């Protein structure tokens, strides 16, 4: 399959999530790309109405490419827990959404991690705690061309949360063959093994 190459120059990072934008900027640093975030350009955040990671990533990338006239890169990602049938999956961010009676609107990651833990606890102490992060990266150009790449990292969930680095569910995710959570590992170490890095490796091979 031939992929369209990404030329040096401006690329919109179609995300309003500061943690993701930071990680994607780091991953793009070696490639002569000038990343500019959707937030900096004042681009609206489209509703994530898709039912798959790919649909949501494409939706965000196309919205930013159309809104800016520049190529755009979007990341849709999430945590999938095996015994929960892959939940929270595409709804990973929604599980952190605070209701008005919880002080919302806003997101509370500690609460979201607690919801996952609550569901595992219901299944008993011997339940399978394996989980994986998925990252789907979508690149879209203003003329409608698109490219998709998917990455994964396997691990298991620990409780209570540990560590202050990273973002989202990092404090409960221990990658396979490690003892530290993603929030305890040095960011460079997380970047070397994460779902985002895996998807990024595929993107780099295809479009640079
Ligand atoms: P969305 O892709 O914006 O719908 O959100 C996916 C959610 O998955 C994020 O807001 C994070 O909570 C979670 N997530 C994705 N990647 C990571 C990661 O690298 N570490 C921790 N949580 C992540």
In short:
This protein is α/β, with parallel strands linked by helices. It is built from five helices and six strands; from the N terminus they run E-H-E-H-E-H-E-E-E-H-H. It has one domain: Maf protein (Alpha-Beta Complex), CATH 3.90.950.
Jot down its keywords.
single chain; 208 residues; alpha/beta; Maf protein; 6-stranded mixed β-sheet; 5 helices; 6 strands; binds inosinic acid
Structural write-up:
- There is one protein chain.
- The protein is an alpha/beta fold.
- The protein has one domain (9-207): Maf protein (Alpha-Beta Complex), CATH 3.90.950.
- Helix content is 29%, strand content 22%.
- The protein contains five helices and six strands; from the N terminus they run βαβαβαβββαα.
- It has helices spanning 18-28, 53-68, 109-122, 187-193, 195-207; strands at residues 9-13, 33-37, 72-81, 130-140, 146-157, 173-175.
- α1 (18-28) links the parallel β1 (9-13) and β2 (33-37).
- α4 (187-193) crosses α5.
- The relative contact order is 0.16.
- The chain binds inosinic acid.
């Amino acid at each position: 399959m031939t992929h369209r190459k990404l030329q040096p120059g401006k690329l919109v990072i179609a995300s309003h999530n500061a943690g993701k934008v930071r990680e994607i900027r780091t991953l793009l640093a070696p490639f002569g790309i000038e990343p500019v975030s959707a937030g900096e350009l004042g681009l609206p955040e489209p509703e994530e109405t898709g039912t798959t990671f790919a649909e949501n990533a494409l939706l965000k990338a196309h919205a930013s490419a159309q809104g800016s006239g520049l190529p755009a890169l979007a990341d849709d990602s999430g945590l999938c827990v095996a015994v929960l049938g892959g939940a929270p999956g595409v709804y990973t961010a929604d599980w952190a959404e605070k209701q008005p009676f919880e002080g919302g609107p806003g997101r509370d990651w500690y609460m979201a991690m607690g919801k996952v833990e609550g569901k595992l606890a219901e299944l008993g102490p011997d339940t399978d705690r394996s989980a994986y992060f998925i990252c789907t990266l979508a690149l879209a150009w203003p003329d409608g061309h698109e490219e998709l790449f998917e990455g994964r990292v396997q691990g298991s969930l620990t409780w209570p949360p540990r560590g202050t680095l990273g973002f989202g569910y990092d404090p409960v995710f221990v990658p396979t063959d490690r003892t530290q959570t993603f929030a305890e590992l040095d960011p460079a170490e997380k970047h070397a093994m994460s779902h985002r890095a895996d998807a990024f490796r595929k993107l780099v091979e295809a479009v640079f």
